[in-house]
């Protein structure tokens, strides 16, 4: 990722560090790695059923842009995020940690960010500072009481921020002196970028 220019330097994330990656460059690097390893990649597929023999998963039925197909393998990794293959096998699943799951998040991008001004208000830690948490807690309608903002690797494009709570609030409170609402397509192409996670 670093050689492709797709990874930031480490940034403070609470009591640890995190590096933000560029999604498009990650897709390219991951695809290249898989192809070099001989993996046949099937894009735009959805698993619709499992194929089992003697209670062992031996294949999947997929729906692709070209229609239905079957794939077979000795091992499968269910990376669906919802244990889809496990569920279709009829095996027991659980939800979260005693039913507690991570709040859903929304990622979006914002342009025209003055990084120095932003960092002067927010600080170096990517997790919301107490003054921001206080503003979030004052809004009962907001589920999330913390947000995460990360500078990205693409300073020419935009600034992204994550949780729906920030989008619901608007970003006006992030400016310590004034707020502006940029017009679409009016963003300069030289501003640094931010990204978020949740």
A few lines on this structure:
The chain has 198 residues and is an alpha+beta fold. It is built from 5 helices and 9 strands, in the order ββαβββαβααββαβ.
Write the layout of secondary structure elements.
Blueprint lengths: L10 E3 L2 E3 L4 H14 L9 E8 L2 E9 L2 E6 L11 H5 L19 E3 L4 H8 L7 H8 L12 E2 L7 E3 L2 H6 L24 E2 L3
Antiparallel strand pairs: 1-2, 3-4, 4-5, 6-8, 7-9
Task: List its traits.
single chain, 198 residues, alpha+beta, three-stranded antiparallel sheet, two-stranded antiparallel sheet, 9 strands, extended
Q: For the largest sheet, list the strands in their spatial order.
A: 3-4-5
β-sheet strand percentage:
15-25%
Uncertain spans: 157-198
Rounded radius of gyration (Å): 21 Å
**How would you describe the shape?**
extended
The percentage helix is: 10-25%
Output the helix-strand order.
Answer: EEHEEEHEHHEEHE
Report the biggest beta sheet as strand number plus sense, adding barrel if it closes.
Answer: 3 strands, antiparallel
Question: Given the helix and strand composition, which structural class is it?
Answer: alpha+beta
